[in-house]
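Q: My labmate handed me this sequence with no annotations at all. I'd like to see what the chain might look like in three dimensions before we decide whether it's worth expressing. Could you predict it?
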Amino acid sequence: MADYKNLAKSIIDGVGGEENVQSLYHCMTRLRFKLKDASKFNKKELQNTDGVITVVESNGQFQVVIGNHVADVFETIKSMYKIEVASSEKATDEKKGNPIARMFNIMSSIFTPIVPLLAGSGMLKALLVIMTTYFGMSEEGSTYLILSAASNAVFYFFPLVLAFSAAKAFGTNQFVSFAIMAALLEPKFTGLMSEVGDVVEFAKLPIVLMGYSGTVIPAILAIWAFSYLERFLNRYIPNLIKMFAVPMLSLLIMVPLTAGVIGPVGVFLGNWIGDAISYLSGTSGMVTGAVIGAGWTFLVMFGIHWGIVPAMLNNLSTTGFDTIRPPVANATFAQAGVAFGVFLKAKDKKLKSTAISVLMPAILAGITEPIVYGLSVKYKRPMIAAVIGGMLGGGFAGAMNTTVMAYVFPALTTLPAFMTGTFVYYIISITIAFTVTAALTYILGFDEEGTEEPSPKEEPKKTKPVERSTILSPMTGQIVPLNQVNDPVFSTEAMGKGIAILPEDGKVFSPVSGKVTTLFHTGHAIGLTSDLNTEILIHIGLDTVKLEGEFFKTHVNQDDDVEQGQLLIEFDLEKIKEAGYDVTTPVIITNSNDYTDVIETEQQSVKKQDVLLTAVVL
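A: Here is what I predict for the chain of 618 residues:
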């Protein structure tokens, strides 16, 4: 085993020293630190450290990406320093941490699983507007009414969706949580109210009635309070009657409490946020839009944008439109402008190819992480261009009070959602953001040093040249280009070249004959070295380390010899999806620098043991 002491020392120095580490654990590729004082974290020093692939900061967690040798580095750190080792991210999320960071983590865990549903419903709503406005669909017809019900359902019953998702985030019973909020939408309860603000009695106590359909904040506050109540009841109620007594008392206490106190307070807060945003848009819309357009990318990089998502959803539910999302779109199109500017300016063919490949996901799907981490952050000056372009475009959108009718990812494919009375201003704003950023990226330029292929004398000598190494598909599924994977460590090829698969079943087979060199204890990832010395990483899903091995079953052990086609891992695909995780599975050749090229399959879908990748040395 290699000596990792110098690397371990450099990493601990880079995170502020042993005394600055609150806790540490590792997944398949990265060390994950929780730090006491984030200001002591030296990102630049760590990124320049030999043995560190890249560094990612997210939601108060500091990730140092090592690659295949992460376990060795982790063990070396353990042997050299007295640092608390956590078994998982849940264990590191202690209550004594930064309350603001915890809040953003919670917002992320609540909204991330339901964002695709919101986006899909919002786009359907937007398409109905187009059909009735331009294609003569009658709003009285049954076709419209059925599709309208499909698009409106999630928004009408949004408190129920939020309650279910919030319950998981707060670690409480999801079905009781659902019932608590369902009571406030039940016809007998809603029938008590003739007008918002009507007062009724409950056990001689006054209750102010509110409409809760489409609200955001009441459900989150109610389930947060319920999580404490449930823990209290579970502590003191005997096991003999706990099965029915805890749910019964939970409903008995929480429904009146939510209807009488939490709900009205939540509605008031939601209305206040909406009024505040309307005020800012009305009095200083240009400044508000400029700040959002310039700063949104940084909020996303730090994971704190989730704190603003409830405000957007609250706007949509209370007014039917939102003024925050259009300036956000300008930040997205500014990053797309970076990619286009780099494509025009770059001399290196590989960099040009990278720029155009990351441009398409941005303008068609609103996915900008590959641009942010692979171009803007890496070359620095393009990020300055994006800030200026996003600021100008966002400022124009804000000044014209540009609106959107649904929560969608800003992209060309989601233009229908912006087809309100301000649509033309939206088009002008994103055009400004894109063109200004592209032009500034071209004018400011960037340092391409290190992007050129090494000269022959710099290339590493190969002790055992291998002309061709074929990697078969470890599973059946749909092909996903690596630059579209929603994790910058994979999408920017920091771990190596490869491809990703959206699996159709829950089985992973060996793509090569060789040895299991790394098998993470949670079963979510496996590293193999083929008989031809090709190193392969199969990472099942994104962030699935957080499942702590739940839904995964391994059929091999580390250091086992395996044959091509041998079953390695089984996983419960549907339950992992239900838990809110992205199941996209990257398949990476981690020593791809040892090869002249890595050729990807041209198929849109693959079956297990189809040819997936071919690594060649010319």
